[in-house]
Design brief:
Residues 10-35 have a biased composition (Pro residues). Residues 143-269 form the Pyrrolo-quinoline quinone repeat domain. The structure is a single chain. This protein has 3 helices and 35 strands. The protein has helices at residues 46-57, 106-111, 470-476, and strands at 61-63, 67-69, 119-123, 133-142, 145-150, 153-158, 164-169, 174-176, 186-192, 202-209, 214-220, 233-238, 241-246, 249-254, 260-263, 272-278, 283-289, 299-305, 312-317, 322-330, 333-339, 342-351, 357-361, 387-389, 393-396, 401-406, 412-417, 423-428, 434-438, 447-452, 455-464, 480-484, 487-491, 494-496, 506-510.
């Protein structure tokens, strides 16, 4: 019997844990045979939504071990009378400072490796953070270093072993970073004007050379009036040009010395205003137009600019009622659009080099969700979980499935679904093949597989992550990923200043040396 050309199933061989793993989560046991991957179908979310609605309608929410919140009060046992004059014990519990959760060292993880499993390094960051969630910024790779900004510092680690190479300490927290550095390894980060959690402005530009860890120029963004604000600032780098969107205005600066080059022109003033910028091989500016209560008339405009002069090279306009969501790639230009405010009615749109429509893809039929159910976390227009773009292919995943579409025809090429783990497209290969990261679960380490036309029939395991790292890997929830020359780097998307929730800052795997 002939196999279907695009199967949606793939038995996955079980990965056995390393015996005596001291860092496995409580209750860790060797897993049984994994469920088989199956064809796409509707996800069982409707039942869950109904349950939540019923619970809310019932007047309370049930907490495990804690009864109903907002529901009928539980009966209270009658108190035994105390003798007159007996001291009443204090109800104020003693204040305890919890010990930070211990992160295993690289040596400890590697000591638990099984045959053929990846080597690893881990970074434990002891930085004292405010007791709240702190966003972990974009992940940059330059040469043999991986660099990331967190709170009030920017740190570089050596890719080969995770050793810290340099750290730039800043006086106030970082509030914006570009998606990628310049070709010669420079970035401009934006930090707050003061450390306060509320009432700050995101208006301090600081250039940093990622190759050396040296800081360059610094300047403050100015505000000229209405529609020109720095509460939320968006940045992008294209060549030696930094584009900055602030409020309803945008401008370009030279990365080398911070000189302002030009104001990005407004078009149809009062009707269209710049909303965000995307960079890389092209400089793109998104604008929202005809904004009103009636969202069926609103639309988005995407312009490609010559970074050096600001000249408009082409324009793309969405149909009325549709908005540009995220820019998945600037070369080729691939973006998401959605109708009104509904992220469940969305498309993937590919443009030609001249900005004309190339193809429109509707991924909903295969169960793909907008930015892998993560919504539009943060303000970065180039951030969309579970997406990857190759020269002629867009890959979608980040949930319980991963698949590929042809950018020229919009045709669905292949896909795999897994009830075991989440599948993240990681690196595009020849044709429509891709490397895919299988994220860790509480009891099963992650790994990297290769998939291509034919889907599950082509699956080849590239890297098995060691079971000794499973707890550390799972805690990161595949927040941010980078793949460089056979090595994967994983960080969380945010960290907590609460010591009880302390986690590793960075984790990396690569094939063991032969």
């Amino acid at each position: 019997m002939q196999r279907p050309s695009q199967p949606w199933y793939a038995p996955r061989p079980p990965q056995q844990p390393v015996p005596g793993n001291p860092y496995a989560p409580e209750g860790y046991a060797p897993p049984g045979p994994p469920p088989r991957r199956g064809r796409f179908g509707r996800r069982p979310v409707l039942a869950a939504v109904l349950v939540v609605l019923l619970l809310l309608a019932g007047g309370g929410v049930y907490a495990a071990g804690g009864g109903w919140w907002g529901g009928p009060a539980a009966p209270v046992a009658e108190r035994t009378p105390r003798p007159s004059g007996a001291p009443t014990p204090s109800r104020t519990p003693a204040v305890r400072t919890p010990a930070p959760e211990r992160v295993p060292t690289s040596d400890e993880i590697n000591a638990g490796r099984g045959p053929g499993e990846a080597t690893a390094w881990v970074v434990d960051d002891p930085t004292d953070l405010p007791r709240r969630s702190i966003e972990v910024r974009d992940l940059w790779t330059v040469g043999d270093t991986v660099v990331q900004a967190l709170y009030k510092k920017v740190t570089a680690h050596r890719l080969s072993d995770g050793a810290e190479l340099w750290t730039v300490h800043l006086p106030t927290p970082v509030c914006e970073t570009p998606a990628a550095p310049t070709p010669d390894g420079k970035v401009v980060v934006v930090r707050q004007n003061r450390e306060a959690w509320s009432g700050y402005r995101c208006d301090q530009l600081q250039m940093i050379d990622l190759r050396t860890g040296r800081t360059g120029w610094h300047r403050q963004l100015t505000r000229t009036g209405s529609g020109d604000d720095t509460i939320i600032v968006n940045t992008a780098l294209s060549g030696d040009v930094l584009a900055v969107g602030q409020g309803m205005k945008a401008a370009a600066y030279r990365v080398g010395d911070g000189t302002k080059l030009y104001d990005i022109p407004l078009e149809e003033p009062g009707r269209c205003h710049p909303d965000d910028v995307a960079g890389g091989a092209r400089l793109l500016v998104k604008a929202d137009c005809a904004i009103s209560v009636d969202r069926t008339r609103s639309y988005s405009q995407l312009r490609a600019l010559d970074p050096r002069t600001g000249k408009v090279l082409w324009r793309f306009r969405t149909p009325p009622g549709w908005e540009v969501g995220r820019v998945l790639s600037v070369d080729p230009v691939v973006l998401t659009t959605f109708r009104g405010v509904r992220r469940d009615d969305w498309r993937v749109v590919a443009l030609r080099p001249d900005g004309k429509l190339r193809t429109t893809i509707d991924p909903r039929a295969k169960g793909f969700t907008y930015c892998a159910d993560a919504g539009e976390s943060g303000e970065d227009i180039q951030e969309c979980d579970g997406t990857l773009v190759g020269p002629d292919t867009v890959y979608l995943g980040g949930t319980d499935r991963v698949g590929a579409y042809d950018l020229g025809t919009g045709k669905f090429l292949w896909g795999v679904r897994s009830s075991l783990t989440r599948l993240h497209p990681l690196h595009a290969e020849a044709g429509s093949a891709a490397l895919v990261y299988e994220s860790a679960t509480p009891s099963r380490p992650g790994g990297i597989i290769r998939l291509g036309p034919g889907g599950a029939d082509t699956e080849k395991r590239v890297l098995n992550h060691p079971a000794s790292a499973v707890a550390t890997e799972y805690a990161m929830l595949a927040g941010r990923l980078a793949y460089v020359k056979g090595r994967i780097v994983i960080t969380p998307s945010s960290v907590s200043g609460d010591d009880r929730l302390h986690r590793a800052r960075m984790l990396s795997f690569a094939p063991a040396a032969p």
